[in-house]
Amino acid sequence: MTQDKQLTVGLAITGSFCTFAKVKEMAQELKNRHMRIIPIYSLRVQDTDTRFGTAEQFCKDMEQITGEEGIFTIPQAEPIGPSGYLDALLIAPCTGNTLAKLCAGITDSPVLMAAKAHLRNEKPLVISISTNDALGMNFKNIGMLMNMKNIYFVPFGQDNYKKKTNSMIAHTELAGDTLMEALNGRQIQPVIMGPLKV
């Protein structure tokens, strides 16, 4: 795919709150690549305040970075399908809960509805995982999603193999490169990388 127009990318955010600083950096990096970024918020992202910050402030920060108010409801996400206005959809971070529901075809949040609607258009869905059970209960779901058409993964590795042996997290600095490869129908390689530096 040649980039002769501005790409429009949905950035669907789920509740791995400890990664939100990286999400903001990722959004800025994609903007620096002259992409239009439309945030899509899970219900937990919208209503949960944590030690990493308030939900309201995070959404304001994302609006300031992207210049877009974003999508907050399932009815707002559903038209992604018939309108087909996204070139790609990036779920970042993608929690184990979202992974499992996506694998099972469940659409009970704006993020999952966006994914379902977007996949109907046979365009790339890119997953940036952040889950404590990647090598546990969600291992089979990762494998199944990797084998599905139009689904790609940001390369990931164990983030704390000594204290959290099943936990894996994406190398978010590779999200932009992963998107560009996915738009050309290719999974960036290698997918599984060494442990992240902590």
Provide a descriptive summary of the structure in words.
- By secondary structure, the protein is α/β, with parallel strands linked by helices.
- Helices cover 37% and strands 18% of the residues.
- It contains nine helices and seven strands; from the N terminus they run βαβααααβααβαβββα.
- Strands 1, 2, 3, 4, 5, 6 and 7 form a seven-stranded mixed β-sheet that branches.
- Strand 1, helix 1 and strand 2 (36-41) form a beta-alpha-beta unit.
- Helix 1 packs parallel to helix 3 (55-66) and helix 6 (96-104) packs across helix 8.
- The termini are far apart.
- The mean pLDDT is 94.
Round the mean pLDDT to the nearest integer and report it. 94
Number of helices: 9
| Estimated share of beta-strand residues | 15-25%
In angstroms, what is the radius of gyration?
Answer: 15 Å
Q: Shape from CA axes?
A: globular
How far apart, in Å, are the first and last alpha carbons? Answer: 36 Å
Low-confidence stretches are: none
Major sheet description: 7 strands, mixed
SSE string, helices as H and strands as E: EHEHHHHEHHEHEEEH
- Name the structural class: alpha/beta
Helix content: 25-40%
Give the number of DSSP strands. Answer: 7
